[in-house]
Amino acid sequence: MSKDPKRTPAPVSSRPDIASFIEQVRSLGPSTAQGGRGRLIFALDATMSRQPTWDTACTLQADMFREAASIGGLDIQLVYFRGLNECRASGWVAGSDHLAELMSRIDCRGGQTQIGKVLSHARQEYARQKVQAVVFVGDAMEEAIDSLCQSAGELGLFGVPVFMFQEGNEPVAENAYREIARLSRGAYCRFDAGSAHQLGELLRAVAAYAAGGIKALTDLSAKRSSGAQKLLAQLK
Prior knowledge:
Elements: H1 15-26, E1 38-45, H2 51-69, E2 74-82, E3 86-93, H3 96-104, H4 115-128, E4 133-138, H5 145-158, E5 162-167, H6 171-184, E6 187-191, H7 196-232
């Protein structure tokens, strides 16, 4: 995929964008997780450019658990890639302390993206036991887009939406992330490196969806709409 120098990048997601994102998630398929607990794959690009957001995610991931705990609980699996050929997945964890410990032991290293491996792993996990959603946070895409689209489409057929959160405005990544989200019936949003609150709002929204389905996300939006608006109003 080549860059289009005339194209302007999508703006950082503002309050209306977040509201639109939540409305989009409400229209998706899966409902409440079986057994009262959801399963969410939390995937991160851990190449060198990701270090600032990795540190932010280490802090924000606890909010996902807190949000899900108020609904029915959430099991999260951490998946990350770095270097030239390293892509690893943790076991499924049910507490923020455990996940934070796992993340704190990982340092970002130079390398290329391995989003295809993340999507393939998500399909394998779904074959073992239902997965409600996949979240991916990254800033680049250096792979064959057609292969990624095929994997995303398969996840969409299984009812596993992929939520693609892009840091920055790299246009090739944006095109790819939008397609992955569309084909998997997920959603795309963009944030700035310093927008920790914004990323946190997005992660909490997906956690609510994974733990309790559409109803939980609707309840969250109604319950916290004023607080979320005050918070997001500070973002530029």
